């Protein structure tokens, strides 16, 4: 079998480590299933992307939806990152760890009255508007609060990001943003929106995008709007290119931060404004793994099954997107042969699998398996399905670790429920 090795998750004497920490040592304390993150991975990726864009005025706003653990948000805030939030809950998480209000952007296609109100009360850097009706409501609430709302319109550029349909967001058929004519109309109807200050323009065309071309096409479309508005005296301060940078799950060839910057800087430079990047997955996916323990193995109708204690409620990406996550043993045993097996969880659904027909070292009850690239859209999409407790999260730095979220208690499963 192949191993997914990196500087951050590597084998020492055939045993998988996160940075300088033995995973087995961590698991003795926390049990399984458990998410483990490398703090230096988060920091290194952030710095790499940040320095690639050094030539232009820019800021990275980490998309917290990819991994909203407080310690993860704080890791980015501590090195100068802003955040992109998509709900009041995400906003409260960012504020709780001390992200400055003017380093927070509020996104989302369906913000509620209360969410817009809190965004205005907190004087966030920018609220994105994704429809004319939402803009009307933002203006209305800002008028009531006697405030001026800083708004960026999210434009749907109708560009194909060539990714999974469920994470494509910039096509005409997708629910996100407004089309180009509507965006221009709204930017120029300023008298209708007296309590709105248009400070930016925004796009986010999808996630797990593996080539730069879709970004280039979309940025070109939005920069045309930007420059047209400038000619009409509407000078926007921020040009937000969204997130979406792809990562390696299964030997995909992904562009590097410098290739990304090289493709976009020539277009962005002409705008003379602050460029905002909103990566989530790029910063967090390969920072994390999910460790599971083998409960049973069996052969059923000649098919091998490895039943582990992590399930679709812990990591739903394989079930909903058919997403590939590399799975490898925490302890390599060279005397074991490789087999092909489905690696499945205990949940009562045939859709509850982590991998299908996967080549993997033969294992036995009690062995640990590591599900790689699980740092983004892993713990944040976890649920209590089958009344299962969500797993703990552990942050490793060098040869020390910290439990940054406990395994949920059984009391948690009854919380706010009444007879
Ligand atoms: C508005 C916005 N920005 C940024 C992101 C982050 O995307 P990714 O994790 O692909 O970088 C998302 C993800 O859905 C988003 O909706």
Explain this structure.
- The protein has 419 residues and is of the alpha/beta class.
- The protein has two domains: 9-38 and 285-414, Lyase, Ornithine Decarboxylase, Chain A, domain 1 (Beta Barrel), CATH 2.40.37; 107-279, Alpha-Beta Barrel (TIM Barrel), CATH 3.20.20.
- Helix content is 28%, strand content 25%.
- The strands form three sheets. Strands 4, 13, 14, 15, 16, 17, 18, 19 and 20 form a nine-stranded mixed beta sheet that branches.
- A hairpin with a 2-residue loop joins strand 1 and strand 2.
- Helix 5 packs across helix 6 (132-145) and helix 8 packs parallel to helix 9.
- The longest helix has 19 residues, at 213-231.
- Bound molecules: pyridoxal-5'-phosphate (PLP).
- Pyridoxal-5'-phosphate (PLP) binds at residues 63, 65-66, 84, 107, 204, 207, 242-245, 278-282.
CATH C-level category of the largest domain: Alpha Beta
What would you call the shape?
A: globular
Mean pLDDT: 96
What kind of oligomer do you see? single chain
What molecules are bound to this protein? pyridoxal-5'-phosphate
Sheet with most strands: 9 strands, mixed
CATH superfamily annotation of the largest domain: Alanine racemase
User: What count of helical segments does DSSP give?
Assistant: 12
Return the CATH topology of the largest domain: TIM Barrel
- What is the share of helical residues? 25-40%
User: Helices and strands: which structural class?
Assistant: alpha/beta
Architecture (CATH level 2) name of the largest domain: Alpha-Beta Barrel
How many DSSP E strands?
20
β-strand percent reads 25-35%
């Amino acid at each position: 079998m192949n191993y997914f090795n990196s500087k951050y998750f590597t084998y020492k004497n055939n045993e998988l480590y996160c940075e300088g920490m033995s995973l087995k040592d961590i698991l003795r304390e926390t049990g399984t299933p458990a998410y483990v993150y490398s703090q230096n991975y988060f920091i290194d990726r952030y710095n790499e992307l940040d320095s690639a864009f050094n030539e232009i005025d820019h800021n990275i706003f980490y998309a917290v939806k990819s991994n909203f653990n407080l310690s993860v948000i704080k890791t980015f805030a501590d090195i100068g990152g802003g955040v992109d939030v998509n709900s009041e809950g995400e906003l409260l998480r960012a504020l709780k760890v001390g992200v400055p209000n003017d380093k927070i952007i509020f996104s989302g296609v369906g913000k509620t009255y209360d969410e817009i109100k809190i965004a205005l009360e907190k004087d966030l850097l920018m609220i994105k508007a994704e429809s004319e009706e939402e803009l009307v409501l933002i203006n209305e609430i800002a008028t009531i609060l006697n405030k001026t709302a800083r708004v960026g319109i999210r434009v749907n550029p109708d560009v194909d990001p060539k990714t999974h349909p469920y994470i494509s967001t910039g096509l005409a058929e997708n629910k996100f943003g407004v089309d180009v004519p509507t965006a221009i109309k709204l930017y120029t109807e300023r008298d209708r929106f007296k309590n709105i200050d248009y400070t930016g323009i925004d796009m986010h065309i999808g996630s797990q995008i593996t080539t730069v071309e879709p970004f280039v096409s979309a940025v070109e479309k939005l920069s045309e709007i930007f420059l047209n508005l400038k000619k009409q005296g509407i000078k926007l301060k921020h040009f937000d290119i969204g997130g979406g940078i792809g990562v390696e799950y299964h030997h995909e060839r992904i562009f590097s931060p410098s290739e990304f910057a090289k493709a976009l800087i020539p277009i962005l430079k002409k705008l003379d404004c602050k460029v905002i990047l909103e990566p989530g997955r790029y910063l967090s996916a390969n920072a994390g793994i999910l460790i599971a323990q083998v409960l049973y193995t069996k052969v059923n109708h000649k098919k091998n099954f490895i039943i582990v204690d992590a399930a679709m409620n812990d990591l739903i990406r394989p079930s909903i997107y058919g997403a590939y996550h590399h799975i490898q043993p925490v302890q390599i045993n060279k005397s074991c042969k490789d087999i092909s097996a489905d690696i499945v969880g205990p949940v009562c659904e045939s859709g509850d699998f982590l991998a299908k027909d996967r080549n993997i070292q033969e294992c036995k009850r009690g062995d640990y398996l590591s599900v790689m690239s699980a740092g983004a859209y892993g713990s944040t999409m976890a649920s209590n399905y089958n009344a299962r407790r969500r797993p703990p999260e552990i942050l490793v730095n060098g040869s020390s670790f910290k439990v940054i979220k406990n395994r949920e208690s059984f009391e948690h499963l009854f919380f706010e429920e009444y007879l």
